Amino acid sequence: MDSDRSRTDTGASTAERDSLLRLLGGRASALDASLPPVAFGLVWVLSGESIAAAGVSAVAVGAVIGVWRLVSGARPLAVLFSLLAVLVGSIIALRTGQAVDFYLIRLGSNAVSGLAWMISIAVRWPLLGLVVGTLLGQRTRWRRDPDLLRAYSRASWIWVGQYVTRLAVFVPLWMLGAVVPLSIAQVVLTWPLVVLCVVVSWWVLRRTLPSGHPGIRHARAPEGSVR
């Protein structure tokens, strides 16, 4: 009986962890973030370091991905922001004459995102809880559950680490003007890092929630409170 319950709990945990990965973007978001920069770096090399050719290629790849995402049911606003980031990066590189500046928009977005996650933890509105709670239809009910609030706060630090890791790699490469290594780093530190982040943050969530807690889909009101 205990072994059956253990297998059931493990299966449920795996399913919820996989659901968390889908809720937070999954492979589709990784394509948005990694393929246009790869196209930029590849075409920049093949075209004899032409920033214009590289920028046009990156925007074209971003547009194709955007159309595919829209057909697949993605939110139009999310697709627009992804394409806009590629377009702005291309314009910056053209204006400065430095191909490496194509990645400035991504350096900035990672810095802002990391800061936003830290602030959200400090004010007890951890972004992981806001994102997952909203997508699960809980709105902010999870904040009335002290265990979930604590678990989301701790797990959110893993996501802060994700942005800090990217900046620790991206900034030195940008300062060195390393276009090709930056393109490669975009791939290595996108989908693989997101998967690792989800797995570790899910482990932190599970470890933080007390035994017997129903899980992230079921927020509990504190004892003695009125629902």
UniProtKB/TrEMBL annotation:
The keyword Transmembrane helix applies. The chain crosses the membrane at residues 51-70, 77-94, 114-136, 157-177, 183-205. It comes from Actinopolyspora xinjiangensis. This is Intracellular septation protein A. InterPro entries: UCP010219. It holds the Pfam family DUF3159. Keywords: Membrane, Transmembrane, Transmembrane helix.
